[in-house]
Amino acid sequence: MLNxxxxxxxxxxxxxxxxxxxKRLDLKTAKDLLFYFPFRxxxxxxxxxxxxxxVNANANIAGQIELIQNKKSPRKRMYITxxxxxxxxxxxxxxxxxxPFIVKNLRIGDKxxxxxKVTDDxxxxxxxxxxxxxxxxxxxxxxxxxxPNYHLTAxxxxxxxxxxIKQIIKLAKKIPDSxxxxxxxxxxxxxxxxxxxxxxxxxxxxxxxxxxxxxxFEELFLLQLQSLLIKxxxxxxxxxxxxxxxKQIKKFVSSLPFKLTNAQRQAAxxxxxxxxxxxxxxxxxxxxxxxxxTIVAVIAMLNTALNGQQAVLMVPTEILACQxxxxxxxxxxxxxxxxxxxxxxxxxNTLENNPQSPIPNPQIIIGTHALIQQKIKFxxxxxxxxxxxxxxxxEQRKQLIENNKTSVLPxxxxxxxxxxPRSLALALYGDLDLSIINELPKxxxxxxxxxxxxxxxxxxxxxxxxxxxxxRQIFVICPLIDISDKLGVKSVKEEYKKLxxxxxxxxxxxxxxxRLKAKEKEKIMRDFLDNKINxxxxxxxxxxxxxxxxxxxIMIEGADRxxxxxxxxxxxxVGRAEHKSYCFLFTDSTAPNTIKRLQAMIRxxxxxxxxxxxxxxRGPGEVYGTIQKGFPVLKVATIFxxxxxxxxxxxxxxxxxKDPQLEKSLNLKEKLSQAEIIN
Length: 679
Ligand code: ADP
Ligand code: MG
Fold this sequence. Notes:
Blueprint lengths: L15 H9 L5 H5 L5 E4 L14 E16 L4 E10 L2 E8 L4 H4 L5 E10 L4 E10 L11 E4 L8 H11 L12 H6 L5 H9 L4 H32 L9 H10 L6 H14 L6 E6 L5 H14 L3 E5 L3 H14 L7 E4 L4 E3 L14 E4 L2 H4 L7 E6 L7 H9 L8 E6 L5 H7 L4 E5 L10 E5 L4 H13 L3 E5 L14 H12 L5 E4 L5 H12 L5 E4 L12 E6 L7 H8 L10 E5 L5 H12 L3 H12 L1 H4 L18 H17 L7 H8 L6
Parallel strand pairs: 4-6, 8-14, 8-15, 9-12, 9-13, 10-12, 13-14, 16-21, 17-19, 17-20, 18-19, 20-21
Antiparallel strand pairs: 1-7, 2-3, 2-5, 3-4, 5-6, 10-11
Helix pairs in contact: 6-7, 7-22, 9-10, 11-17, 18-20, 19-20
Bound molecules: adenosine-5'-diphosphate and magnesium ion.
């Protein structure tokens, strides 16, 4: 019998290969599938007659296959399947790329429904890579009403997923609904089972809405509960007081090569005042990319170390950990403070260099997730800082705070480059106090952003050459590592080859991506920082935190593949010193919406505004997983829905008033402990 834990490979029609492909999407059980939500829907309720098709519009057509054949494109080494489809009003050409098997599914004479974008290729209208469905007559189970679209990897089809979910949709009733009944009632939410059914098989948009509302509310509700529970705990907990080591800190600050901005000063002061108390600090430091959060963190860590306690800084990537380690080592060279680096591949200590027991000797420890994964216990932690906090879960935060041998909690600071407005930040992260760095260091120039059309590419290269002659450095970002058969998506390897062999053979160019060994990555980053490399071709591994003040151009290939707030983060890799800097965005897409989206980058210079624009232009589903990087990971809800957030907060407060330890809501408790929600 099927149940929620039934393994994917035990479902009807799932063989080993499909199971393996599904596992790549993290789909292992029936339950996983039920919670794999579509990111958008296609409206098959309206079929357009071929004669009435318009250029650049998405449309659904139904017709008969007149002709279908595979061709091999010699230049791009790919298959093109060409078909001619007719209905009673006319004919249209249809093509698919690299799906030669289609000719086995669709034969001349078959009736099909197709959904896709209509373009004009100079020889007439053409539909490229449409979703297709064989139909009998002009009716079909699949294509009536709204058709869900799931994010899939190669070699899985929408149809397969829909077919699998159809098999198990009845199981939705067996999932315990963890939302308190009163909450569901007062917020007018449908049941979980209904919501899951509607989100996969809606008959109309109203059902989609109801489903999203229910599922989204639960996400926000859990987020709020989580945050309230942490707050409860902090209110009861004790931390060690730290003294403000005024003389030494002032001396350190005046030894810096720059003057702190007022905002940096204020933030550092707020943090130090908090650490003087016995209530554990729980503070969020917000400052746009390049505003200088690191030095504020260093001041706080130094004060902790001078108090004889340990300070821990956790960052999301190894590259960033190494960078911070080097920077902080240099900054604190006049102090006799051991500094440790702890990542999957590094266990260093500036003073002891003892790889066997590297921790807990250092007073200042910089590390990645490895700190949590390897359950490093700290001897005497006084301060825990998480950089780019949105990359970590609440749960991880809790673990890091609690991983210590004493019963007192360390003071806690998280830092983010996402400038969420104060009111929203308070609603979202109610357990945190807020410090905001709202000014950039003096002398920074505005970064000029351009959406560069293909025919201006050579000019861009010329400009790059000029900048390099002047001593500057360049980042080139690509969406993928390897050359892909997907149409028009640039890869690091391909671009590297092109730039290195053809465009700039005289320059020093290197590649950076997640598949390199830590040692290699580190060497490349160090060489880039030392200006031994002119151009760094990289994936999104340098998205956050990387600080190379001499870099002045970031060129982003396939820019349409990234969310706007992500692009904003990339852009923040340049303009980090006094040099005038530039961001060049490239795209193969000519879709008006894509261009509009990218052009928003020219006008706006604020990650939060950009995120909101992205959401408006693309819709919530499309945006999930790209734009929402930098925000709590919500699958359905959005953080811009301030009203829902407030409601979720007050519902969470109500529940905790009645059931402070969630003893009567075990379901919820369990859900919270496995929540992936990121705060
Ligand atoms: P972010 O807030 O993005 O983490 P960083 O802390 O990496 O920014 O700082 C960006 C750059 O600005 C670094 O090279 C840093 O040394 C420099 N910087 C920080 N504060 C100041 C300041 N007050 N004046 C000039 N440069 C500064
Ligand atoms: Mg930073």
